[in-house]
Amino acid sequence: MHAGAVTELPMFPLGAVLLPGEELPLRIFEPRYRAMIEHCLAADGRFGVVLIERGSEVGGGDVRTDVGTVAVIDRYVRKPDGGYTLTCLGTDRLRVVQWLPDDPYPRADVEIWPDDVQPAVDLIPLLGKRDEIERLAARLARAQGFGPAHGRS
Fold this sequence. Notes:
This protein is α+β, with helices and mostly antiparallel strands. Helices cover 20% and strands 41% of the residues.
């Protein structure tokens, strides 16, 4: 996935936020999410995570945000009852372009939403002003009654 490209992803609405760079532990027991995880494991292990604004995680009927994070399955254990215990890693911020039918599990067309890259700040000119700033700060402190000139250091 890359910025600007629209891709269909399985989606996992949650009552908590996942940020890029964070770990997400999950216990999967609901049949539709078991199917989703099996799909993800057979593919590249990726799915989207969005916050539930209102409603319930169980059975749908929720209101979901249109911004989230791509999660990648890092480790998993399949339980004897068919459920899963997962550890996932948040990778990229995403924006939902369009929600698709929740059949057989929540899905959406999404695009990667990269952080705006800010230009680097050149601090070298400021370092040259350090002595001047320190002298001004000392003068201001003395004028306000602080420092050695007034004996209130």
